[in-house]
Specification:
It contains twelve helices and 23 strands. The mean pLDDT is 94. Strand 9 (134-138) and strand 10 form a beta hairpin. Strands 1, 2, 7, 8, 9, 10, 17 and 18 form an eight-stranded mixed beta sheet that branches. A four-stranded antiparallel beta sheet has the order 13-14-12-15. By secondary structure, the protein is an alpha+beta fold. 31% of the residues lie in helices and 22% in strands. The protein is globular. The protein binds flavin-adenine dinucleotide. Flavin-adenine dinucleotide binds at residues 7-13, 30-33, 41-44, 98, 121-122, 152-154, 158, 178, 262, 281-282, 289, 292-296, 298.
């Protein structure tokens, strides 16, 4: 039997497939589309996702095709300098168009042995009375069985709907048109119009040479109302009408590469797990794209879930490990939803919102506020609640230099890691799940740290007894 069916081959599903394959899990990704759309919705990776790619040895592939950027205070359209002392060895984002991210992740998933079946739409699923598995139904009427299913099938997730999981939140109040196209207007005039309109309307923009395509603009303009069905793409005629209404000119827009619309609906799944079925990425949460967090959040969900699900498949998962996916990631998702709600308020055009934005902009001139906001958007500040203990507990650890190499180079295999400067500790009994490296980092002021496969600190200290009491919580029982 297949171990895990991942429904949806977007950034979340592909990342999850990579993580599962690191542990030898038999994984099949079912993707409805026969070909990628090529639509560049997510435009980049924030610092925490950059770290994750480094932890899995993928960063060089991303660096080869991406520009680094350092836009601090990526909040509510308020641009500030990058803050000092952000807690990361990768203090930058990567401008990587979403189709490129998906291509790199798909390549990696296939290299690792994931099976990706395109043109396969999941229409139903059942786990009733099937103690050891789940059956999914495909649009062609065939069925597939697996031990677990993860719905990474986007905001309109069929998996979530079939599970009957609630998706509370707010419906879209505004809608925005988005697309890549050519224009006849000269670049200086386009830039001047954009500057003028953005004084009062921040949901407007025209980015030249988008994703390296010379002469192609990414144009964003508010739609007239909120459509019932956002799956239908706008026409070029609707687009140019809105441009004339908002900016007084349509720039002579023509030859669209693709046109799309998105709303500001904000919703989160009530539960991320029902029995043997889990939800991740947009299937679990949707929110406006302000701050560019959605793709990152999904990739980070997958990193949290992958090793836990692999442990469940392998049979060594301790009690509660799989449920900790919901316990840890649901609050992180809820905080992102809240920060996008705050950003949407700041983007308003009424006098109150304008005054609030000006005040917020001044506050962000304080280094500490800028660092806080940037840490929040880039997700380097995420800390899971592992209870009382060392200040590092629950945080993910930044990359640090070691006497031999660096920390993240030790994490490519996705296993647990004890980094030990004392040389006195031992993970005997867990050596099949946890690596033990005796080394010293000048940058890390702690005798030893135990890292989970996702890089979060499970324990810090120097006492073997304490370590032994911590290992089972994350890595199960010691081998005989
Ligand atoms: C305008 C815009 C700008 C954005 N900008 C950013 C940004 O700068 N940074 C950022 O991080 N995020 C951004 N986002 C959000 C980002 O695009 C999404 O959060 C991200 O694509 C979510 O990835 P996912 O894999 O969870 O879902 P998706 O990318 O939606 O992938 C789901 C996949 O599942 C497939 N699928 C759906 N139903 C089925 C089914 N029944 N059976 C089989 N397959 C199915 C779909 O075809 C799709 O390939 C933006 C979004 C928009 C709209």
């Amino acid at each position: 039997m297949i171990d895990v069916i991942v429904v949806g081959g977007g950034p979340t599903g592909l990342t999850l497939a990579c993580e599962l394959r690191l542990h030898g899990v038999r994984v099949v990704v079912l993707e409805r589309l026969t070909e990628p759309t090529g639509q560049s919705r997510g435009r980049g990776l924030h610092a925490r996702s950059v770290e994750l790619m480094d932890q899995r040895g993928l960063l060089d592939r991303f660096l080869a095709v991406s520009e680094k950027f350092q836009a601090g205070g990526l909040f509510g359209g308020i641009v500030k300098p990058w803050p000092d002392r952000l807690d990361t060895a990768h203090p930058y984002g990567l401008a990587t168009p979403q189709p490129v991210t998906e291509r790199l992740l798909e390549e990696r998933a296939r290299e690792l042995g994931a099976e990706i079946r395109r043109g396969c739409e999941v229409t139903g699923l059942s786990q009733a009375d099937e103690g050891d598995g789940v059956t999914v139904e495909l649009a062609d009427g065939t069925h597939l069985r697996s031990r677990y299913v993860v719905g990474c099938d986007g905001g309109r997730s069929t998996v979530r709907k079939r599970l009957g999981v609630g998706f509370p939140g707010e419906p879209a109040k505004v809608e925005t048109l988005l697309g890549d196209m050519e224009v006849t207007e000269d670049p200086a005039t386009v830039a001047a119009v954009v500057e003028e309109v953005r004084r009062t309307q921040l949901r407007f923009g025209a980015i030249p040479d988008v994703d390296g395509h010379e002469g192609v603009y990414r144009i964003i303009v508010p739609a007239e109302g909120v459509s019932e069905d956002r799956t239908s793409a706008p026409t070029l005629d609707e687009f140019t009408r809105r441009l004339r209404a908002v900016a007084g000119t349509d720039f002579g827009a023509h030859s669209p590469r693709w046109l799309s619309r998105f709303g500001d609906a904000t919703r989160q799944a009530e539960r991320y797990r029902v029995g043997r079925v889990l939800l991740a990425g947009d299937a679990a949460h949707i929110h406006p794209p302000t701050g560019g967090q959605g793709l990152n959040l999904g990739v980070q969900d997958a990193f949290n879930l992958g090793w836990k699900l692999a442990a469940a498949v392998a049979g060594w998962a301790p009690e509660g490990l799989l449920d900790s996916y919901h316990t840890e990631r649901h609050p992180v998702g809820a905080r992102v939803l809240d920060n996008t709600r705050a950003q949407i308020t700041l983007l308003g055009t009424d006098p109150g919102a304008t005054a609030l934005r000006e005040l917020f902009s001044k506050l962000m001139d304080f280094e500490e506020v800028n660092r806080y906001v940037t840490g929040m958007i880039t997700a380097v500040e995420v800390r899971y609640d592992f209870g009382e203990g060392h200040e590092l507990l629950g945080r993910r650890l930044r990359d640090v230099k070691l006497k031999r190499g660096r920390l993240y180079e030790l994490m490519h295999g996705g296993r647990g890691l004890l980094l030990d400067r004392t040389g006195r500790l031992s993970v005997a009994g867990w050596a099949d799940r946890v690596d033990h490296v005796v080394d010293v980092s000048e940058e890390l002021d702690v005798p030893a740290v135990l890292l989970r496969p996702d890089g979060h600190v499970a324990w810090a200290g120097e006492d073997q007894g304490e370590l032994l009491s911590r290992l089972p919580r994350w890595f199960g029982a010691a081998a005989a």
